[in-house]
Design brief:
Its EC number is 2.7.4.25. It catalyses: dCMP + ATP = dCDP + ADP; CMP + ATP = CDP + ADP. The chain is 51% helix and 17% strand. By secondary structure, the protein is of the alpha/beta class. Strands 2-6-1-7-8 form a five-stranded parallel beta sheet, with helices on both faces. Strands 3-4-5 form a three-stranded antiparallel beta sheet, with helices on one face. A hairpin with a 2-residue loop joins strand 3 and strand 4. Helix 7 crosses helix 8.
């Protein structure tokens, strides 16, 4: 059966890590929707477009050609033929992605692209509104979260491992701000779908979280 699996949750919950690993286990395609919004944010920064310029951001999203490919077991994000995988993970791009993702026109363009990618099934897609808006008919929906302290530590460790200078206080402020924006935006706010399974990964390692997610996916 060509299933469609949706994983939602707040920043730093481990969605991308688990979604990617789950896709590998099932032999499915992994689609990182957060990376798509980060890519639009990166392009906006490069073009000097403000995050509150809805018209310009919508135009950017409509013209951007964003594709994904797997190289060496890693998802690579390609923007207009250019690999931006590392560039979109910078803290300043992540901070801009939240307000950019709240622009209705941007969401309209990217949601259409995401639905097209999932049309043939065998897909694991993660984000903040996948089970509620993008793929409301997904076969399996998981709401993955963790305590704020744990999410801060995970993101801090991730950035440090990539050689990006930051502080725990800075990461906490960034994640807290994104949590508020994502859950309070008018268009497609972050929330758990009524038929999604709540999975709290606080204190759990990746293998245990993956095992639980896999069991949920295979049970559907």
């Amino acid at each position: 059966m060509k299933k469609v699996i949706a994983i939602d949750g707040p920043a730093g919950a481990g969605k991308s890590t688990i979604a990617k690993a789950l896709a590998e286990k099932l032999g499915y395609i992994y689609i990182d929707t957060g990376a798509m919004y980060r890519t639009v944010a990166l392009l906006a920064q490069e073009q000097g477009v403000a995050v509150d310029d809805a018209a310009a951001l919508t135009d950017i999203a409509g013209k951007a050609e964003i594709t994904m490919r797997v190289e060496g077991g890693q998802n690579r994000i390609i923007l207009n033929g250019r690999d931006v995988t590392e560039a979109i993970r910078k803290p300043e791009v992540g901070a801009a992605a939240s307000p950019v993702s709240a622009v209705p026109g941007v969401r309209e363009h990217l949601v259409a692209a995401q639905r097209k990618l999932a049309a043939h099934g065998c897909v694991v897609m993660d984000g903040r509104d996948i089970g509620t808006v993008v793929l409301p008919d997904a076969d399996c929906k998981i709401y993955l979260t963790a305590s704020l302290d744990e999410r801060v530590q995970r993101r801090y460790d991730e950035l440090c491992a990539k050689g990006i200078q930051t502080t725990r206080e800075g990461v906490r402020e960034d994640i807290s701000t994104r949590d508020y924006r994502d859950s309070h935006r008018e268009t497609s706010p972050l929330k758990q779908a009524e038929d999604a399974v709540y999975l709290d990964s606080t204190g759990l390692g990746i293998p245990e979280v993956l095992s639980r997610a896999l069991a949920l996916a295979e049970a559907e």
